[in-house]
Amino acid sequence: MALAQFRIYTPQDFQKYLMNTDFSREIKVIQNHHTWEPNYKSLSPSHGEMYWLESMRNYHIKDNGWSDLGQNITTFPSGNIGLCRPIDITPAGIFGANTGAICIENLGNFDAGHDKMTQEHKDAIVFLNAALCIKFNLEPIKEQVVYHHWFDRTGKRFPESKVNNNQVGGEQKTCPGTAFFGTNTITSAEANFFPLIDSKIKQMNGTPETVSLKVNADVLNVRSGPDKSFPVVHTLTKGTQVTVFAITDEWSKISDSTENWVFSSYLS
Predict the structure, then answer these.
(1) Could you tell me which residues come within 8 angstroms of residue 150 by beta carbon, excluding any fewer than 6 positions away?
(2) CA angle in degrees (0–180, nearest 5) for 102-104-108
(3) Which of 188, 181, 146, 144 is nearest to 166 (CA)?
(4) Are the beta carbons of 174 and 184 closer than 8 angstroms?
(5) Residue pLDDT, tens place only, 9-50
(6) Phi, psi of 191 (to 5 degrees)
């Protein structure tokens, strides 16, 4: 089998490719992973994103004995999306649970205390999961958008209580990271990750709806417009529940009647 021909896309260009391409393989599950290594610290101006795809493929073939790079898609801190192993070819993502799956590797180490995900990366990951859900008629639910950490080494799902109570331990990797959009538990995915995907799906389908999130900063400034140049009208404390009515670049509007804006990265 010929090796995959890598391509790097912006999220919008990847969506065009995705929506204008017919695939023969039935996709039932979207897997989310992190590379762990390479990570953000590995990146340097002398090596572009294509270099890291080739480097990971070299490792997967020479060290893992696989036929090609394991993942179908890679996301980068820049927000770009790399097409890797063809989508019509089953990935090497979660051993024993790859049939009908599409594998996303998010470049970085998203265990707590390691890489702090860029806003561009967050946006691309949410966008990509939403675009795949739309293309393959999936929903952001625990049966269809999954984390590697939720499966044992044979590909069988751990009991949900075991994952949510952090009892997996060394039985599986922490992938996609203990600080991936909250934590790597199912409860966290349902509270923090899935609502973002659901909101993006509605937005991409032309039916934007609100999403409920919590403040993750000790103190969060609420401004009268989507920029730091706008004055602070009041502040919110950590854990405060807010409803997001609109998103502009890196800013979220948290009122449907007043110009109240906060920096999106401080919501989760």
Answers:
(1) 142, 157, 158, 163, 186
(2) 165
(3) 188
(4) yes
(5) 999 999 999 999 999 999 999 999 999 999 999 999 889 999
(6) -90, -35
CA 31 distance to own-chain centroid: 10
Q: Which of 194, 158, 188 is nearest to 173 (CA)?
A: 158
Q: What are phi and psi of 74, to 5 degrees?
A: -125, 135
CA distances from 73 to 52, 143, 148 (A): 13, 20, 15
Q: How is 53-115 classified by DSSP, letter by letter?
A: HHHHHHHHHHTT--SS-S-SEEE-TTS-EEE-S-TTS--SSSTT--TTEEEEEESS--STTS-
Residue with the two structure tokens 């890291």: 52
Q: CB 61: neighbour CB atoms within 10 A?
A: 15
Token pair in block for residue 112: 């707590």
Three-state helix/strand/coil letters over 105-164: EECCCCCCCCCCCCHHHHHHHHHHHHHHHHHHCCCCCCCCEEEHHHECCCCCECCHHHHH
Q: What is the pLDDT of residues 76-121, one digit of tens each?
A: 999 999 999 999 999 999 999 999 999 999 999 999 999 999 999 9
| Dist CA 256 CA 177 (whole Å) | 34
Q: Is the pTM of this model over 0.90?
A: no
